[in-house]
Amino acid sequence: MSYASRDSGGRLDYRDSLIEENIGKISQIILVTGGKGGVGKSLIAATAALMLSRASNRTGLLDLDLHGPSSCLLLGVEDNPVESGEGLVPPVVEGLKVMSIDLFSKGRPLPLTGQAKEEIVKEMLALTAFGRLDYLLVDMPPGTGDELLTISKYVKRSGGAIVITTPTHLAVNVAGRLIDILRSASLKIIGLVENMSTSDPESPTKELARAKGVAFLGEIPFDPLLSSRSGRLGRDELLSTRFADALKHVLRNAGLSVD
C-alpha cells in the first residue's frame, strides 16, 4: 500500500515514502486520544509509554499535541534530538524514545494554521528516526483536528486508538463523536478509558462503550497527588501512584505487554 500524495502544486510528496519506511519498523502504533481537553490524555500517554519501556519493550512516544506539548515536562526530558544519516534521533529516557515539538520550540507558543499542523505532523513522522519499536504511543491533541486526520491515514494498518474520557456527560458526549470520526477514518478503536473515575456502576462511560460497541478498558480513579504535583513528580514517584497502578490494569486489558 502506498501513501503517496500530492501537494497543493500537484507534486508528489517525498515525505510519504519516508513515513512508510519509518512506520514499517513499528509493530504497533497507539493513538492516545480524547474528545475534550483536560481528561488526562497526556499524562496517560507518557506514563503508559514509560511503563512499556520499563517492561523491556522497545517503545517510543510522539507528542503531537502541538499547542500544549507536555511529554518532556512529565518525563523530565532535557536532551535534544541528534541529527544522523537516518534523520533526527530522539532523546532517550530509561530506554524510552521521546519526540516532541517542544524540543524545538522550547516552551514558546506556536500559532499554527490547519495547513501548518498537517505539515508539522508529516515532518515529524518522516524525519524522526525511532528505529524498530514494539510500541509507539502518540499523544494526540483533544478533538478531531488536522493532527488526527493527518496521522490516521498513515497508521491504519498498524495503528489503533485508545479514547480517554472523564465520567461527565459533556466529556462522554464529545468522546462519542470522536469514536464516530475514528471509525469514519477506518482506524481501529482499541477501547475506552474512564479517567478521574468515581467508580459509579451507572457510569456514562460504560454506557457509551456499550452503545458504540467498543471495549471498556477500565477506570482510573482521581489521584489528588497528581492534581497537586503533576509535572513535578520524578519518574519513580509517578509509577508508584494509584493512578499508575490503575493504568497498568488498563494497559493489560488493552493487550499491551506490561509487568
Protein topology:
Blueprint: H1 15-23, E1 26-33, H2 41-54, E2 59-63, H3 71-75, E3 82-84, E4 87-89, E5 92-93, E6 96-100, H4 102-105, H5 114-127, E7 133-139, H6 146-152, E8 159-165, H7 169-184, E9 188-197, H8 204-212, E10 216-221, H9 224-229, H10 235-238, H11 242-253
Parallel strand pairs: 1-7, 1-8, 2-6, 2-7, 8-9, 9-10
Antiparallel strand pairs: 3-4, 5-6
Give your account of this protein's structure.
- The structure is a single chain.
- The chain is an alpha/beta fold and 259 residues long.
- It has one domain (15-253): 3-Layer(aba) Sandwich (Rossmann fold).
- The protein has 11 helices and 10 strands.
- The protein has helices at 15-23, 41-54, 71-75, 102-105, 114-127, 146-152, 169-184, 204-212, 224-229, 235-238, 242-253; strands at residues 26-33, 59-63, 82-84, 87-89, 92-93, 96-100, 133-139, 159-165, 188-197, 216-221.
- It has an 8-stranded mixed sheet with strand order 5-6-2-7-1-8-9-10, sandwiched between helices. A two-stranded antiparallel sheet has the order 3-4.
- α1 (15-23) crosses α5, α2 packs across α11 and α7 (169-184) packs parallel to α8.
- The longest helix has 16 residues, at 169-184.
- It starts with 14 loop residues before the first helix and ends in a 6-residue tail after the last helix.
- The mean pLDDT is 88.
